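RECORD TYPE: protein structure
NAME: Butyryl-CoA dehydrogenase
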Amino acid sequence: MNFELTREQKLTRQMIREFVNKEIKPLAAEIDKTEKFPLETIDKMRKSGIKGMSYPTEYGGSGSDYITYVLAVEEISKACASTACVYAVNTGLVASILLKFGTEQQKKKYVPELLNKGNKIGAFALTEPNAGSDASAQQTTAVDKGDYYLLNGTKTFITNAEYADTFIVMAMTDKSKGVKGISAFIVEKDMEGFEIGKIEEKCGVRASSTGELILSNVKVPKENLLGNLGEGFKIAMTGLDGGRISIAAQGLGLAEAALHEAIEYTKKRKQFGKPISMNQGIQWEIAECATKIEAARGLVYKAAWLKQEGFPFSKEAAMAKLYATELAMEVANKALQMHGGYGYIKEYPIERIFRDAKITSIYEGTSEIQKIVIARQILK
Ligand code: CAA
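PREDICTED:
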């Protein structure tokens, strides 16, 4: 057993840290306020090779391993959870699904531009107004019209909606078959009848765009069917298994950021004649948070390692997401409390970290869904 990162992973993490401190961290507070994601960041991530982390160079990737990608999500999340959200959905979810289930032609056409060869962004469209946690209750339909499929329906809460070029859309091709009647399609933003609807104003990860997709008689060419007919639910679930490791890494990064802010603040803040970090009440909280962060790191890296090495990882991904994202909120809450009134104003980063942390235990499957996934695998 080896708990050390490799020399290459450490060096790449150092490069990512420098990139994050220069290009991402300085913008975090401002883009949270304006709710506008700076697309130049995507171009910079591409040029530095971060956009294509964990993918082969043949498809526009950086040739790095999956753990390095997870380190990138963690580092970016420490500075700006919105940027991590855009990145994780594009690189960790959409590109991964396309590479795993796409035909050679689909992979060549779509993947490189989502990675280091272009500035395109991907989105994953599963959720609907009536299909949230119950993802199988898809109402969007896709009807076979010979040369093309005709897609109709509405997707909601879709990350990257406003900025994405390539969408993986789940739709019902045969209602009578239930889950096995769901298929996956690659939809391009310029296809006729495809529109972006309402963009949500959110509590956290405000610079990442979350919106509605409206599909009105969208003609999707036959060659844009992803995987086999009826395989859409499996494709979505397989993709989310990996996506959940990304969100776990986001939770880990946010928890680390919150603890960092708490340490910085409590060492400086003097009350009753001494820094408040000298109080045992604060010390015990800091010790507990630091210990739980180490536990979360173990779960996140283990799940990433299992995926990287080709072992089953669905249960471990769900465990990592459950623990790390609940922890993000716990540490953010405690860190904000340690700041007192200063934690509640926008002058200190903990206010944003606290708001950003909340979403991690909701998207890509709520904590309750993670418990279902874990329990089913334990009890089966
Ligand atoms: N991998 C492969 N196949 C899987 C799978 C997995 N992880 N999980 C389920 N399946 C297969 C099952 O094997 C089954 O097929 P068979 O009958 O052939 O065995 C089929 O899918 C149906 O499985 P279930 O009976 O388990 O399905 P269910 O309806 O009970 O749902 C669920 C299971 C885990 C609750 C699922 O609905 C779920 O994950 N819900 C949460 C949805 C979610 O995470 N949404 C996030 C939206 S995306 C997002 O947030 C991204 C973003 O933009 C940030």
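COMMENT: The mean pLDDT is 98.
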